[in-house]
Every structure is written in structure tokens, then in C-alpha cells.
């Protein structure tokens, strides 16, 4: 499975992991998204009904952890991370509003068409995420 992300995700991710209280985010992303099957990644709340390409919001690290929004393209087995935010702490938020969810969905579809994405991989120790702009 290939994992991609929007610039929105990368910016928020880097901002969060720079804070001590959110350092665990990187480990949570690695543990949940890397080396998983489509079936394992399909859990969470579907935001687009029974679409063949689920748009999912997923809780990471329990109720006080993080909320991650992503799109799964089942045919290609591609995953697109769209946004992440903490649920608690100084940068915490309960949820993003419906307009923001719609904006992210529209943006990910546009980014897929224009190839304006980052490819995610892990470093050799599998402890850090590497972001590389898609050529």
C-alpha cells in the first residue's frame, strides 16, 4: 500500500510533533497506517456513506489522543492522509466542522488529479516518517 498526504497534513503533523505533549503522534501514525491491509485501515467513521473509496475519520491513541482524516482508494490500494489534530492539550479540538471536512475531501481529489502530494515512507529504523514531494 502506498501512503500519500496533503500539504495540510504535513504542516499540521510537523507543527504537532515539535511540541513535547504531542511527540507520540509520529509513533501513532506509524503503528496505525504503515504495513497494514486495506481491511485493517477501513475501520473508523465513514464520512461518505458506502462509497467504494471510504473517507474516514479515525481516532488514534484513544479518546484523548488524535483524530486523523484520510481517504482510501481501494482499487489502487492507496491511502491519502488529509488532516490530523489532537483532541486535548493546548492545540486540541473536539472535531473539525462539516465545511472543513468537505474542503479536505475536495482538496484531496484535486491533489490526486494534479499529483500535488507527498509520499510517505519510513527511515531505516522505522521510527521516523519521511515526506518526499511526489515527482
Low-confidence stretches: none
Lateral strand order in the biggest sheet: 2-3-4-5-1-6-7
Separation of termini?
A: 18 Å
Taking the sheet with the most strands, its summary is: 7 strands, mixed
The SS-based structural class is alpha+beta
The helicity comes to 25-40%
Q: Give the overall average pLDDT.
A: 93
What is the number of independent domains? 1
> What's the SSE pattern?
EHHHEEEEHEE
Tally of alpha and pi helices: 4
Which descriptor suits the 3D outline? globular
Q: Compute the gyration radius: what is it?
A: 14 Å
Number of strands: 7
Q: Which band does the percent of strand residues land in?
A: 25-35%
Please describe what this structure looks like:
It is a single chain. This protein has 135 residues and is an alpha+beta fold. It has one domain (2-133). The protein contains 4 helices and 7 strands. The chain has a 7-stranded mixed sheet. A hairpin with an 8-residue loop joins strand 2 (45-46) and strand 3 (55-60). It starts with a strand and ends with a strand. 27% of the residues are buried.
In short:
31% of the residues lie in helices and 29% in strands. By secondary structure, the protein is of the alpha+beta class.
